[in-house]
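For concreteness, we quote verbatim a single protein encoded this way:
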Amino acid sequence: MISIKIILIIFLLLILRAFLVQKSLILTKRVVAFSMFLILVLLVVFPDASTRIANAVGVGRGVDLVFYFSHLFILFLIVGLWRRSIVLMNTVTKLSRAIALQGAQRPQAEKEQKTEAKEPT
């Protein structure tokens, strides 16, 4: 029978690989991702360590501590994605305005073009 620890470590490796494959990732993000990976692997291999850490900070079980930190991490990601979407919306607005202004014609120029088209040459 395959141990749950092996399955969890394989999934962690796949997630780490998918994250580190990105070419545009700066070194700091790579170090943070690898550090988180190591911490998670250690918690999978030594599950009693999370209980000891939880007891040291005043939480009853290690699972609860991991649960709390995962919620904080997810909230951090949501706020980051929300801020990024605002920046992207502002960028799209600026680009659409610039495109609209490039294609716009002045009202005086339109009148002159109409009168020139009506006059026989």
Remarks:
- Residues 1-45 form one domain.
